[in-house]
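Sample intake — Phenylalanine--tRNA ligase beta subunit
Collected from: Streptomyces niphimycinicus
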Amino acid sequence: MRVPLSWLREYVDLPAGETGRDVQAKLVSAGLEVETVEQLGAGLKGPLVVGQVLAIEELEGFKKPIRYCQVDVGQANGTGEQQNIVCGARNFKVGDKVVVVLPGAELPGGFAISARKTYGKTSEGMICSASELGMSDDHDGIIVLPPEYEVGTDAIELLELVDEVLDIAVTPDRGYCLSMRGIARETATAYELPLRDPALIDVPAPNSHGYPVQVTDPIGCDRFTARTVTGLDPEAHSPIWLERRLQKAGMRPVSLAVDITNYVMLEIGQPLHAYDRSRINGAIGVRRAEPGEKLTTLDGSQRALDAEDLVITDESGPIGLAGVMGGANTEIADATADAETGRVAGTTEVVIEAAHFAPVSVARTARRHKLSSEASRRFERGVDPEATSAAAQRTVDLLVLLAGGTAEVGVTEIIAPGAPHTITLPADHPDKVAGVSYGRETVVRRLQQIGCDVYGADDLTVTVPSWRPDLTDPNDLAEEVIRLEGYENLPSTLPKPPAGRGLTERQRLHRRVGRALAGAGYVEALNYPFIGEEVLDQFGLAADDPRRDLVRLVNPLSDAEPALRTTLLPGLLGALRRNAGRGEHDLALFETGLVFRATGHEPAAAGLPVDRRPTDEEIAGLDAALPHQPRRVAVVLAGDREQAGWWGKGTPVSWADAVEAGRIVAREAGAELIVRQDQQDPWHPGRCAALLAVVDGEEILVGNAGELHPRVTKALGLAERTCAMEIELDRLEQAGTGRVEAPHVSTFPVATQDVALTVDASVAAADVETALREGAGELLESLRLFDVFTGEQLGEGRKSLAYALRFRAPDRTLTAEEIAASRDAAVSAAANRTGATLRGA
């Protein structure tokens, strides 16, 4: 909303020296967002005067038409002689009054005016267009003034070129501020000055002589006022003051009748529409559109109407979209002159519509037809229903004053039954919300300033004004008191949490895992938690795979991703693909987050109240309606894990790197991973590992790791040999020992023993490792597989696993006998459990 300061002063007696910046500070303190204060006419210096064209000489021989004009500017040039001015505009003639800037003046933007020779003539000034004076963007022609203005009159004052305009960003809940009336009310309250309300005018009572109106949908239209004005002069034009106020407010002058309706809308906040009475067939109606109906709106577009559209009709059908835009078949006709008779034809009788439409209905219609207008922006934010009669009367008065019309005695007013909205508010409620002691008197005074009627002592009964439909609850009233008392006066206090609060073990594990993966060279990539079925098809998931049980969103951001993710891999792989497309091929990404698994037994969620704290049962019911949300961590790798350089070739990523990422995560949970071969989509069947952990003595699957299936990498546009790991942190936490304690550093020497065991090819290395660990006992510090060998000398179906065993005691140096005994016990346990034999024995 653009608010000229000169216009605002008509409703509030601001101090004489108050500037736009001062008003901005006051309004910002009151909670309005004043984005800028525009200084109109900044840098403009006279003389800038009214001139009359005495003669025009057409100059020939140039690429464009050029005119050499003699202009009378009175005594403004100090001599009274005519000014010779070169001008290229064609929209004026001899005798017209124009705006002339004389040598020595300066136009906005630092454009100094002087006499200069051009097109073979000396131009002593310039005839100005609206754009050159900063009035508007119209530069098609120069300004032609009405003939009643005297030559030599100061045009700076006449055209109101010097002013300040406040540009206010009005939030959706403050629709009343989309009018001078609303901004003036806020200004008067901020300065604690009286308000001259432009809607407080005498309005005649409704009678049976008004234009016939039939409202068949009182829910969509609860108030409709119609007035008629006849005998309008079709040649009447908007006066300069009216055009300038519209221009300063950001609107383009069109014609007198349209300009007046726009002016009243800006002044009072009530959108209006003027119909050419001669083009209306019968009574005006308000109803929902019927199937197959169409309407050509004022913008020239033919629109197929929806059954939910509220329309204005006559006997011929729809003539307007209620609250959005009128129809082209009843618009005000421009004045046209008959070439033979010279008589001017145009609209001489108008019917004024001032109605109140349901905000939701107008908003849906505007969005459905992609047709946002000044009227719809106001209606969908809430318009004062009590202002319709005043706005109609104001429009009638201006039409009579400026267009020479006559107001008919008939007044049509249809009002649906209704009552003002009342809120019960404890007098100390704003105190509790703000943590400030305002007191009852301050609360009552502030509520009365915004237009409320307040009764009561400890419990206040507050009747909300008709122009504030956003005030519906006690907290809304508390907010009004707080903002008017000043947000800057609220004390800055930090909340005091009770002792013993902090991160949960689940949150601590989440953070430790993130730090560990980042330390291992992975980069965190956070993705939107949305997926579509297409990516699950690309993964090759079976129809009964639980990852296909999606939780679908009612209003998804994208139709391609209408559900919540059941796995972290789609988002990570999408990030991997985007980075690879931008030239980054050696990548290691990770993400920790929730996945959403629907069980199919979730009850429907019930709505929670907003006027009180929900009960424990209501909160429990809401929690029960949520899907299962386990926390997971996933990594994806592509390209080289170690870069190539002068030291040698690079090391490409492999399934082993993905498995090691799982081990890094498990170590942070204090859990020991068991790795076995597995087949699970979307991994390669021969390069997929199952990651297991022991919970309550039972092995459970906590995740998978390995190389992705070639068909998956091809479908997703990924590099070959792309690897991934995904593990469930919640299950891993159950298998872990809690917080990981720092290792004890022994001062005694370590003893290393290598053993090579031959086993069947089908035996998992993890099983051999478990047997060795259990057999070696407490003296075993660590165990590492460092070689896997197959060959003819071992025999078909056999493989050799070489392990490095490190032995150490916490309190002494081990003897050779102790080391040998532990080693032999480990080998014996592996032989008994896996059939391993010591290689070379």
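Post-analysis note: The longest helix spans residues 816-834.
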